[in-house]
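Model: You mentioned two targets. I'll fold them one after the other.
Researcher: Yes, keep them separate.
Model: Target one:
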Amino acid sequence: MCGNNMSVPLLAEAVTVSAVEKETAAVIFLHGLGDTGHGWADTMTSIQLPYIKYICPHAPHIPVTLNMRNMMPAWFDLRGLSPDVPEDEAGIKRAAEDIKAIIEHEIRNGIPPHRIILGGFSQGGALSLYTALTCKHQLAGVVALSCWLPLHRSFPSAFSGHKNIPILQCHGEMDNRIPVPFGAMTAEKLKTVINPQMISFKTFPGLSHSSSNEEMATVKEFIERYLPRI
């Protein structure tokens, strides 16, 4: 049965890289603050596996406190980039529900949750972590690049209970926006929520707040491991 993309607002405009053979899995990847899904769709194409569909939605334009309340693509409001800054709890939860709607759409269209990886970069990576940890389904895994766990104080009480979800965290060692110790703190927090053996935290020397070919090769390896051909 084919679902209607129009019933899921983020899907109607999302950039989708279709599989080149029968689709048996999906990767949903969320961009960072001020970006769109287009660049990451190109990146996903460069590591594409032929049986996987890649979905790169665009965040809505909202006023962002960090950017003097100017309108820009953002999954939720950001008031700062340090662990103790007040967070946009309502916005984070609303954004997570929007991503869960994409997951439910894929499930209705025949891709089971254990064949879906959720990922993202920076703010998108943060949202992917929060969404996966609060989702009623256990997903195939999470790819969390240069990011943090939003509303970290709400865990483990907000946790859905899927302790064996694989998480790949990658972080540039020269990241001056989300410093690597913030990523390391996130990995340690995650180890108190899920099975620590399921968490892989990799850092990349010389890499700033961006991605690299080496990092994307690591991402491809993770996807191939947890979404193998069937």
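Model: Target two:
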Amino acid sequence: MAYPGFGGGIGQTVPGTCPPLLAGGSPGYIAYSDSSDPMWSYFTAVAGQDGEVDAEELQMCLTQSGISGTYSPFSLETCRIMIAMLDRDYTGKMGFNEFKELWAALNAWKQNFMAFDEDGSGTVEHHELSQAIAVMGYRLSPQTLTAIVKRYSKNGRIFFDDYVACCVKLRALTDFFRRRDHLQQGFVNFIYEDFLQGTMMI
């Protein structure tokens, strides 16, 4: 069964949530070098010799790609948690396949945001953030939604960068919880160190 906070069962993918595993292993670990892919050009323009990007390089890459459109570029802190969300080998960096996974999630989140930002102001209201979270498939209590709105709103409005940061944390923490909720019952037992390692990285 699916527990509150994740839209659907393991085999069901919701925009902005964890995709199904690729054949042969986890997403993010497949060699790729297709120079015809525009994302590959964005990525390699800033990637280091190790073929990965850190938070500053990711920020540069996303800014140059124009994925944020008319909205403000992503902050360095948001880029840090983007990497943490997909950093399955705990290197503090992101490879190209992980970048492609992030790109797909960002596009889904952006479309969701734009659906509520009807006036093109680059912000949504607090009740619209709650609606956007529900559209992504999360089933959260009013108390949890209120806490999220307080964390990410400024003067009652949520900017695109904060909205994406919210989406990243929701996905990362849900994935962290789901990996430990083997029976999908909605509760798990944590040891203190495991909890800290999982939450402090995001």
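Researcher: Noted. Anything on target two?
Model: The longest helix spans residues 96-116.
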